[in-house]
């Protein structure tokens, strides 16, 4: 468990535009293939921890707590590169994803694709049983 | 100008979890290279218009109006594929971007990369003069 006292690098503290809930959107992209894995949220503390440790840590809006990605499931994200967008309200995390990013056991979260006749079609296989990822 | 009466396909109306402001995050990714171009927001109307026209339309939070990407600048995004994430609160738009996605004249918005010594380094060239994009 990391200390709560990790501070954000000054450059990011100045340039990140946290929203009215203190959060910034973070897109995770597999660094070598370009696959967009997921989008989640970070607060100041989770961003600072991610940079300090090199392991991606989000802020869980549903649990209102730090979400060290893969802590329960083992499906960790190693940070390769972090970029900030032009207006400072979105991060692009290039990561190395172990296993699957999605809690459904799929490689990424964007598996529901809109078809020409307006159905949502599952396009990705379930690679890991969610019960194995999170226990029963 | 599109009619305001375009409705969202039923499947998306049921599955998209708009937030408390009626918005959903949308990531635009160049369909053939995998480059993440930008992240912006859509409301129900802009999403419906995007699907109906095949040209990406966001919701501008700053202007509180529809933002037909490229309407002023010519830097349009043609929709190639639309995917919804597992919990319905983020869209991944695979697009074909004409010119540059970023209002700074860079190809994408994530040009500020965090260096090992915690500086933000501009990594992308300005390809178009913003004054040419938006007029003087």
TrEMBL record, chains A, B:
Which SUPFAM superfamilies does the UniProt record give? HisI-like (SSF141734)
Where is this protein found?
A: Cytoplasm
Pathway of action = Amino-acid biosynthesis; L-histidine biosynthesis; L-histidine from 5-phospho-alpha-D-ribose 1-diphosphate: step 3/9; Amino-acid biosynthesis; L-histidine biosynthesis; L-histidine from 5-phospho-alpha-D-ribose 1-diphosphate: step 2/9
Where primarily located?
A: cytoplasm
Q: Known catalysed reaction(s)? A: 1-(5-phospho-beta-D-ribosyl)-5'-AMP + H2O = 1-(5-phospho-beta-D-ribosyl)-5-[(5-phospho-beta-D-ribosylamino)methylideneamino]imidazole-4-carboxamide; 1-(5-phospho-beta-D-ribosyl)-ATP + H2O = 1-(5-phospho-beta-D-ribosyl)-5'-AMP + diphosphate + H(+)
So where does Zn(2+) get bound? 86, 102, 109
Any GO BP: L-histidine biosynthetic process
Pfam families assigned to the protein according to its UniProt record, in alphabetical order: PRA-CH
**Phosphoribosyl-AMP cyclohydrolase domain: residues covered:** 38-111
Cofactor note as given: Binds 1 zinc ion per subunit.
Query: Any keyword Glycoprotein?
Result: no
The Swiss-Prot or TrEMBL record annotates one GO molecular function as: phosphoribosyl-AMP cyclohydrolase activity
Per UniProt, subunit arrangement is:
Homodimer.
Stated role: Catalyzes the hydrolysis of the adenine ring of phosphoribosyl-AMP.
Family according to the record: Belongs to the PRA-CH family.
Protein name as annotated: Phosphoribosyl-AMP cyclohydrolase
